[in-house]
Amino acid sequence: MSSMSSPAPRRVAFLVFDGVRALDVSGPCEVFHQAEQFGCPYELVLVSARGGTVTTSAGLALAGTVAAADAGPVDTVVIAGADRLAGLSPDGDAELLAAAEVLAGPAARVASVCSGAFVLAALGLLDGRRATTHWRHAGALARKFPLVRVEPDALHVRDGRYLTSAGISAGIDLALALVEEDHSSDLARRVARELVVFMQRPGGQSQFSAALDAPPPRNGALRTVTAAVVSDPAAEHTLPAMAAAAAVSTRHLTRLFRSELHTTPARWVERVRLDHAQRLLLDGHGITSAARHSGFGSDETLRRAFARHLGTTPTDYRRRFTTTRGRTP
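Below the sequence we write its predicted structure tokens.
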């Protein structure tokens, strides 16, 4: 009488290092662990450049990591993130880059969480490919590695065998997508329910970002115009009005916006108004009030802007972000 053998576990290696963000590792690990509880085994291994103990950014120790040279073959590599990686260049942390290269070479899938994408980019593995990272670092990734096609609003992106995900908790979204690919959408859904998370979160990561988190423009005329828009988003900010305020032609002002802010005047004004509307909603304003005081004018115009930039509605946005307190039945 023959017995059915259990499937061989899929081996997933997490590349970690001093200063790594703990949730970039523990979040995806828990997804794979829960999949194993439902009968779909994964073998998880923590790998570092030299092996031993590494310390996370929160001061927690990850003990017993395996040296990259001794890790052996793995099915999937996940490179976790850290703030310092956003400054990584091709001639940067040689030890970390060498460890990533050793692991990535034979792996069927190579993934990153948050700023872990900078490691893949520094190795040239993302050249000509679509990729994403935390919204705060997306601009830096695009500037430092112009051959990478950065998608700043995506929660996770797959291009060939390479997968990149946005900031921190997006590593959970990525891991769920890998479980679904390995097994089934039903299993991924069961894991998501167990962890009390969305299987696929509505909207992109723009709904989490602060659109105005950028240094002021260097050009004096442009700085005057942008300051006026930020101080009173609901005022008239047509292109002729802004050009007149800056004492430049509309064509020159458009060139300034494109060269320094990489957008058009109209799109920039809309993003400022949207940022203001988001704050008004979280401060307790209704949709009509937020639309009027942010310069959108009507509820429908505000809804269209939310759908276009954030992939959600004003009502859902307010419900998601207004408080950490659960609703009272």
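The chain is about 45% helix and 15% strand.
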